[in-house]
Amino acid sequence: MYFNIQRFSTHDGDGIRTILFLKGCSLACPWCQNPESRSKKQSLMFDERSCLDDCLLCSDVCEGIERTNGKITVNRKVIDESQIMALKNICPTQALSVVGEDGQSDELVNILMKDKPFYQQSKGGVTFSGGEPLMQATLVSEIADKLQQNGVSTAIETCMHVPWKNVEKVAPYIDSWLADLKHTDDGKFLSWAKGSIKRIKDNLKKLDAIASRIVIRVPVVPDFNDTDDELKQIIDFAASLDNCKELHLLPYHTLGINKYRLLDMPYLCSNKPLNNPELLERVQQYASKHTQLNVTVRG
């Protein structure tokens, strides 16, 4: 199950890349910019601003959707998978949209290979993202294997919060690992993201023994990890990995906040982007003592 294929990206690995976004995530980070990726199943997004006043197409095929006094109400609790499928492509203005497509590995490889000339010219390739792509380890390994056989470089964006067997299955077919490390304190990470930092750190240590390139990425989130001590501890851990030479600081932004409204989900983080260049500069200066680790700020 995937939800987007983004072409000509220059922010998710080297060169020009095509990004395959897969659905399903094992974490619940409240700042996630792709909340539509959390569920393994198809998701329903509704933007009432684009809804036609007299249109009844969606309510005619789905009992969980009603129009009352000219306004559409979407009762997500009673809408099952079959009804979501019935809603696909039914809305003429895309006010109501179904997020998620079933895809087979051969079909997706054919799509991804269309941009091979751009990969070759720019030293780019394909990046798997999400959601958490390692939750679909079989699909990723099949696609990545075929891409590598065709001379296409592969990368993966991952939170590493999966069983080790998933990582191990994919590892032979991935050239670059773009791995999130959001904190080092298990208690704080559990309360915010509903996951285990121990699992992530254990996986990163094991990955370090078999991967040739690991890039640690750190979303710097207000009230979560935006202190010198917290970021220094993350840097120290990253520097302990032999095959990690790069760390990217990703200042918190709110570009995905509107998606929460479309999914009828609460947004529980700050409504303002991180604006603390002094913190980022101090952290970069601290990181300079780890001479093997290049720390940069990415917008």
Automatic annotation (TrEMBL):
InterPro entries linked: Aldolase_TIM, BssD/PflA/YjjW, Organic_radical-activating, Organic_radical_activase, Radical_activat_CS, rSAM, rSAM_sf
EC number per UniProt: 1.97.1.-
Superkingdom as given in the UniProt entry: Bacteria
Residue ranges occupied by any Radical SAM core domain in the UniProt entry: 11-290
Pfam families in UniProt: Fer4_12 (PF13353)
Keyword match 4Fe-4S: yes
Protein name per Swiss-Prot or TrEMBL: Choline trimethylamine-lyase activating enzyme
